[in-house]
Design brief:
The protein is of the alpha/beta class. It has 14 helices and 25 strands. It binds ligand EPZ.
Length: 421
Amino acid sequence: MDKLLVTGPCRLNGTVHISSAKNATLPILVATLLCPYPVKFDSIPELMDVATIIKILESMGLKTSKNGNELVADASHLDNQHADYSLVKTMRASVLVLGPLLARYGVASVSLPGGCAIGARPVDIHLMGMEKLGAEIEIENGYIKAKCTKLKGAVITLPFPSVGATENLMMAAVLAEGTTVIENAAMEPEIDDLADFLISQGVKIEGAGTSRVIIHGMDIKDLKPSGKNYRVIGDRIEAATFIIAGIMSGGDVKVTDFNPKHLTYVLETLTKMGANLEIGDNYVHVKKSERLKGTMIETAPYPGFPTDVQAQMMALMSTVEGNSIVTETIFENRFMHVPEMARMGSKVTLKGHSALIEGVDSLSAAPVMCTDLRASAALILCALNAHGQSEIQRVYHLDRGYEKIDEKLTNLGAKIERVKG
Ligand code: EPZ
């Protein structure tokens, strides 16, 4: 297993280009299952999770070809509506194939994803919604067995604005008979991007990005290629990670190729803490600032504070003046980074779903272990600011969601070495 050797403290300087968003790329690639023709994409990020979803889609008969950073995905002839446990267990988002398979073939067999490091993560809302659209669903030997003659449009009210359930149901509704309305839908920018992709193929969707999404079902033969390569939005979570890296290092970093409007709550919080940020149309320029001050955040569905930036914020809060409080409301077990950060000298006290962080003057290097994707990012941020060389183990967690992060940080002046394991 690869590990990273990070020597700190370092001052980051320069420009970093943000990759396309993992959490938009995954559902959009799955949505190609709806399209009986080749679809072309620009700049699909080289991430472990993207490689996994492509493997799952190829196991169903999707044909892919790569030419530079152009990817062609062709779902003209799918011959298998089964998503095997061996692949699904490595990545929960695989459950998103349920909607398109049911809608196109009236049958789907998808392994139940099971839990993960950050929480139990059930899929009951996905299944409730599919049943509302007329699917018969059984759980058999760890698999979701779903079938229907033809999905029928319906009004579905989500008990919680689940990102995955909203995406799965949007895709199912594309080939359903009649109109579907998803109430209390998730509003994340990645949902918007999935809708933009489907609309570019001729689907009629209203209200994506709001809590009420309307999908007008259609016949598969009316789907049409847009004739243009589709480019997925920039990754707001990767951008937030680099913005915080710039702030923590006291450097001068321009983070570009994403939409800062997708990070409004995060940027407002950082500015309130004292960060000096210049915000442009597609960039944020981090400039030198006084030492930041502590604050309180509570994670929430979009447009609230994103849970995927919680760990990185805790890394920052470990080095600011005064105390901070972080409350995690989305996942029940998303503080796995805390004991590892403590090894580098951060002072965090956990109480239920909240963490009290006492800012310290400096961190010290230590060997630490990654436990999940965003926790890994927090450990890198701490290591870049700790005195000495830290050894970060199990970085495969990081490679799931950050494209070439060690190269990008090295280009900004960080001292990072990847040791192949
Ligand atoms: C997406 O996960 C993201 N993943 C997650 O990012 C992100 O943390 C999460 O949304 C919230 O923003 C992808 O897009 C691939 P949810 P998802 O369904 O769709 C509960 C990262 O770091 N729930 O909105 O799984 C669930 O247990 C990852 O990139 C049910 O109870 O999130 C959780 O507590 C981590 N029943 C909450 O809702 C359901 O049927 C939010 O889950 C579905 C969800």
